[in-house]
């Protein structure tokens, strides 16, 4: 088995960056090829394509093979060594930045849980190869390309790690579900979305979602979404006087201007036109 090693660095360098991919590489290692024990000052993600070996952290030792990934955290004493008979062939990338730790945590990685297993069809090997290709081109656009690939890999890792983590209790699960619903409505209110579409997107039964949402917020999802839209419309009426009532209605996802005006009066006690005239000079409090 012939040894090979190749690495490509990011052509763009920033002194301080929220998230920055430093370099990427690939190697067919030799038998008993070892790195460490040592400490790195950046995150280093490996994906094993062939062979076997051991990865040791300050907490435990992992025996890893094809399809396994391991993430080295900065400041952690680690070592890893290829098997004497079937040495590793792997790809890797290094990244850092002020947001790197938070993203890694959101993905489910930690010094105590640094390993994930890729399933068939995983995007991780191809993403690592894509980062190398982007960096080899020498173009500054490779920096942005590498960030896209990194997000894809961390997104897949989040699905793998959280699927195998301990299921939360009912209370925490309900709160998380309601937060998902609120986030969905807050980001989609400007579109003609429906509660049915939201339930389908989140993968839950409408009756269940409606019940737990009202238990947590005191409002049904339909009422919450409508009040959210009216609240957003009030802001537009105050801050964008050049917009017509019809344009304001459309901007908050209500394409029927007459329906919008009726609902606005229901919640605010006056028409949108009267509200704009009266409140232009007043401080405003939110409905929600």
Automatic annotation (TrEMBL):
Key words, A-Z: Activator, DNA-binding, Transcription, Transcription regulation
The UniProt record lists the keyword Chloroplast: no
Domain of life: Bacteria
Gene Ontology molecular-function annotations: DNA-binding transcription factor activity; sequence-specific DNA binding
Residue intervals of the HTH araC/xylS-type domain: 179-278
Transmembrane segments: none
PANTHER family cross-referenced by the UniProt entry: HTH-TYPE TRANSCRIPTIONAL ACTIVATOR RHAS-RELATED
Listed name of the protein: AraC family transcriptional regulator
Source organism of this protein record: Paenibacillus stellifer
